[in-house]
Task: inverse folding
């Protein structure tokens, strides 16, 4: 296997997942800022031109962080249960992962791509500056909802640390570094992010 | 197990998946048009108030169609491989499912919720009419991209029929019934939709 890595939140999500599981893979850097991921060599690895990608054991490539993490969990089984150790735990992890993807991370990410990051993305994705504010508001609405959902919970799946935490932390850590993401008044999410940042994997 | 069903594309996706696998479950109707899914009884099943939901074997609930389909595939194993029969096949299915979710279905669905369906959704989701056109354009951009990707392929994962086809067909069948979705000039997707509509599961 070979991991195609770059700057940005999505590669970091997979690196954190690998650090939690103790997986080390051969890796190759792709120059995201220079747009290398939008050129032919990388489009053969990932037809939507995004980062990261993984060359699998059969020589084919897989992209999309959730698909990569599920694959790595199948190929490197352990008792940590980052996807879950029972069908019901896996269902809960996948449920929260998709809610966070669709309701929060994707609107906020696309709001950023259409707004402060427009110049970087204008030749890469169908960004439209008129969407920036509305998509950011959409994501923030559900961030407040998630803050309420986190009342009394240590991790997104309750007491159980999972892929859902890793996906959300990867995005919130990146957005926080740009001055966005979780707001101080979101007390539950702020405390959750501090717990996540204290894990050694946060440096991956 | 008990399936909480309603009008709309997402419950149809799970019904098609169950029909393909020959699963029959006890079900209960939730009145989506009357907003029953946004009331307390359903919010206990699904805190984001969407449809469908599934009561699992341990009495907990799971929502999000991809999580429900993965759970049903684990609980009713067969050789059909709708998620995939190997780690590499599952990775491919999950990759395409997420690309279709994030790049096409979610922008088009939210474009519709902010546009023609604004009156239905204005008390349900943080809809913003200024997003309708831009989100629809975003989804259509990637629909053209997917049409190119489908050149020479029977199903989204090549020769292999999967959850990715079911997810995309559920949305395209619904949007087509409202005059949207796949356009005739998208020849590969048009032919794919005809193949999907000819399967007995399409009536589920």
Result:
């Amino acid at each position: 296997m070979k991991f195609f890595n770059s700057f940005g939140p999505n590669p970091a999500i997979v690196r954190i997942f690998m650090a939690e599981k103790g997986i080390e893979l051969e890796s190759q850097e792709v120059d995201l800022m220079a747009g290398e991921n939008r050129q032919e060599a990388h489009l053969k690895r990932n037809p939507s031109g995004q980062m990261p990608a993984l060359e699998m054991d059969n020589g084919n490539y897989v992209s999309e962080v959730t698909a990569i993490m599920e694959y790595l969990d199948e190929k490197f089984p352990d008792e940590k249960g980052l996807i879950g150790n029972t069908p019901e735990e896996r269902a809960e992890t996948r449920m929260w992962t998709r809610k966070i993807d669709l309701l929060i991370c994707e609107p906020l990410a696309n709001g950023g791509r259409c707004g402060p990051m427009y110049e970087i993305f204008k030749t890469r994705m169908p960004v439209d500056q008129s969407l920036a504010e509305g998509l950011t508001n959409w994501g923030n609405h559900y961030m407040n909802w998630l803050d309420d959902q986190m009342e009394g919970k240590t991790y997104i799946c309750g007491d159980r640390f999972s892929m859902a935490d890793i996906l959300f932390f990867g995005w919130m850590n990146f957005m926080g570094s740009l001055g966005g993401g979780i707001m101080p008044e979101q007390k539950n999410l702020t405390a959750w992010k501090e717990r996540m940042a204290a894990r050694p994997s946060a440096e991956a």
